Each structure stands twice: as structure tokens, then as C-alpha cells.
Amino acid sequence: DTEVTQTPKHLVMGMTNKKSLKCEQHMGHRAMYWYKQKAKKPPELMFVYSYEKLSINESVPSRFSPECPNSSLLNLHLHALQPEDSALYLCASSQEGGRGRTEAFFGQGTRLTVV
Amino acid sequence: LAKTTQPISMDSYEGQEVNITCSHNNIATNDYITWYQQFPSQGPRFIIQGYKTKVTNEVASLFIPADRKSSTLSLPRVSLSDTAVYYCLPRMDSSYKLIFGSGTRLLVRP
């Protein structure tokens, strides 16, 4: 199984709502990532979890709150978002660093629209 | 992290070989070079990774000169379905920081 599964595929939320994005992988990867991607732009790194601990936060606003309940799951909790937060949110996973293949596997993304 | 420079866009025709070059002048000794492909509204997909010289797999070849300041992704006999954005990313041996540059938008015409 080389899949990263993201749910939901589409999400529309109001600026006062609270919602969560979910990501799951069963490849035994110990690094998991959240990216944000606006149209015609490259994916922008938000957070990295390594061995279920937050290791990188790219100065993301606190209205985005990541959580890693276990080694297979990654959540992104959303609260009080702004319309400019509308984007494709991508989850990825990879093995821990080391020589050899270190490619990241990406999910299909959640298309988020904030109204 | 090494900064990368790629052409913004390239055009090709079906059946041609396409070479996309990425420069990464300040690549570190421990960095591998990885390439990803992304279709619209999908997550990026790993294509190939290399450290030096030449690597080939079922999809592409990657050429890295001795100074490692650039790399070239070669796609043999492209088809319409190869129309996508291609990203080159230096990837440190032990780092989780995977940063995408602006990428190259490849358009394959019939």
C-alpha cells in the first residue's frame, strides 16, 4: 500500500466554523507533512511531524493547528479561517532520512473554500 | 537549503525527448536531487532521485554533472499525458524539509 489518503476531498466552510482535515498512511513512514497550494503556485510547506512530534512549523498562523494522534494519522484543525486561506491542502509522508530512496508520497489533497 | 532555478515553461510535441534543466548552485554535499511531477488538482508524484552521474528508471533519466550544480531530467518520447508541472528539489540526506521551487510547466502538443 503506497497510498496517502486525505479526507474530505472538498470542503466549504464559513469564517466562523471549525473543521478538520484528515490524512492517513500505512507505509510505516515516520515523517508526515502538510502543504498548502494556491492555484498555479508550488506547494508551500506548513508543518512537518517526525516520529509524531512537530519538528517544523513554517510560521503558520495559529488558526491552523496540526495534530498527529499516532504514526499513521495526521490532522489539520481549522478555525476562524479567512477567504485567502482557500487552497488545495496536501498531506505527504516519507521515511526518515537516510541514504537511499527518500521520496515523499502525497495524497490527492483537500480543496478548501472559505466563504 | 539549496535554491533552485528552472525554466518557467516548456513546449514540446508528442514523441519528442524533453530535457528540463535545474540549477542548484549552492547544493550541499549531503543533498540528493529529487524530481516530482504534478498534474492539476493532484498531489505531486515522485519521479526520480540521484546524487551524481546518471540514474535511469522506467519513467525518466536524471543526469547530474560532476560539480552537481545542475541536473537535467530527461523524458523520452513524451505523450500528451506528460503535460504537467515538474519540480526539482534538493533533498538533504537527513532532513525532512522538502521545499518546492517554482517548477517547470511542460505542455505537450499533438
Topology:
The complex is a heterodimer of chains A (115) and B (110).
Chain A: E1 4-7, E2 10-13, E3 18-25, E4 31-37, E5 44-50, E6 53-57, E7 64-70, E8 73-79, E9 87-94, E10 105-106, E11 110-114
Parallel strand pairs in A: 2-11
Antiparallel strand pairs in A: 1-3, 3-8, 4-5, 4-9, 5-6, 7-8, 9-10, 9-11
Chain B: E1 9-13, E2 18-23, E3 31-38, E4 45-50, E5 53-56, E6 61-64, E7 70-75, E8 84-92, E9 104-109
Parallel strand pairs in B: 1-9
Antiparallel strand pairs in B: 2-7, 3-4, 3-8, 5-6, 6-7, 8-9
In short:
Chain A has 115 residues and is mainly β. In chain A, 0% of the residues lie in helices and 56% in strands. In chain A, the strands form two sheets. In chain A, strands 2, 4, 5, 6, 9, 10 and 11 form a seven-stranded mixed sheet that branches. Chain A has a four-stranded antiparallel sheet with strand order 1-3-8-7, with no helix packed on it.
Q: What is the tally of beta strands of chain B? A: 9
- Protein structure class of chain A: mainly beta
Biggest interface, chains and residues, is: A-B, 29 and 24 residues
Q: What does the main sheet of chain B amount to?
A: 5 strands, mixed
What separation lies between the terminal Cα atoms of chain B?
A: 38 Å
List unreliable stretches of 5+ residues of chain A. Answer: none
- In the sheet with the most strands of chain B, the strands line up as 1-9-8-3-4
How helical, in percent, are the residues of chain B? under 10%
How many strands, what sense, and barrel or not for the largest sheet of chain A? 7 strands, mixed
Q: Total number of helical segments of chain B? A: 0
The radius of gyration computed from the alpha-carbon positions of chain A, rounded to a whole number of angstroms, is: 14 Å
